[in-house]
Amino acid sequence: MKKLSHILFTLLFAITFVSYAICAIFVKPTVSVNTNETGIKLPIIMYHLVYDDENKINSFTVTPKMFEEDINYILQNGYTPINFDDLKRYVYSGESLPQKPIMITFDDGFYNNYQYVFPIIKEKNIKIVLSVVGSYSQKYSEIDDTNLYYSYCNWDILKTMHDSGLVEIQNHTYNLHTYDDNRKGVLKTIKETNEEYKKLIYDDFVLNHKMIEEKTGRVCEVLTFPYGLISNSSHDVVKDIGYLGSFSCVEGINNITKDPKCLYRMKRYNRKGSYTTKEFFENIIKF
User: Fold this and answer.
1) Strand runs (DSSP E) across the chain, as ranges?
2) Of 103, 113, 119, 132, most Cβ neighbours within 10 A?
């Protein structure tokens, strides 16, 4: 069993590594935090895996201790974690945002997020955004497997987190979190017509939307693109289904204005576990 867990962990790390490597290839990071435009500056932090094992820290993994240190650092520097609903109300309804907002996001829906992150945010009473791959949650709702290294949250766990009011669930596609010879995220394959392509991703996005609403009660309004791969057609579909925002993995500070366009392709900083909390945040939350 230990050998199997090690193999699955290695495979999971490889997939996650490819995910971020693809982001680095296809998108150019924005590192400057200065802008001449008026608006509210919003850093968004992107987390993936949380392991209680310092030997497994890497570019996509932090320990529970590191995550708690991150949250303490954010709060001590006067930042308030918000979610997309807060942004929507600011842009569309004129409601105010905190003076120094920040957004904490987790991708994929790993079970270790529930085990390690959920208790911390409950203790600190802060909000996070969790983007869920529906096929993963469905699979782990059908089997009894809560391995901290490779399992994903089942629907019951996701509902528990949603019902807390602290975890905002968003759409990370139902079954397009893949990168192989057949398909690379939500990008079109050479074998597909434009009509076939748009129908496939539309059906996938809507299926995950409906399942999340049915299983948890959450009505999603954001599409988090797998691997950060975005085509103009895929983003048109995001808008066609009525979504008000989307997350990329371009790195940079977001400028939030009253223009709804600012909520699409929002930038996020990947939280690399190879840095200490201070090293990671000191060049991000300094304005």
Assistant:
1) 40-42, 44-47, 49-50, 61-62, 80-82, 101-108, 128-132, 167-171, 222-224, 245-247, 254-256, 269-270
2) 132
